[in-house]
Specification:
Blueprint: H1 2-58
C-alpha cells in the first residue's frame, strides 16, 4: 500500500512539473513559430523571384 502511494505521488509530481515546464515552452515555441515562419515564407518567395529574374536576364 505504501509503495503504491509513493508511486502515485511521484507520478503526480512528475506530471505537475512536466505541465509547468511544457506550457511556457509551448508558448515560446508558438511565439518563435509566429516570428520565424513568415520570415521563411518571405525568404523562399524572394529566392524564387530572384531565380526568375536571373533566368529572364540570361535570355
Amino acid at each position: 500500500m505504501n509503495q503504491i502511494t509513493i508511486i502515485a505521488l511521484v507520478t503526480l509530481a512528475v506530471l505537475v512539473v512536466a505541465t509547468i515546464i511544457i506550457i511556457p515552452v509551448t508558448k515560446l515555441m508558438f511565439n518563435v513559430a509566429v516570428t520565424v515562419i513568415p520570415f521563411i515564407i518571405v525568404s523562399i518567395g524572394a529566392y524564387y523571384i530572384y531565380q526568375h529574374l536571373l533566368k529572364r536576364n540570361k535570355q
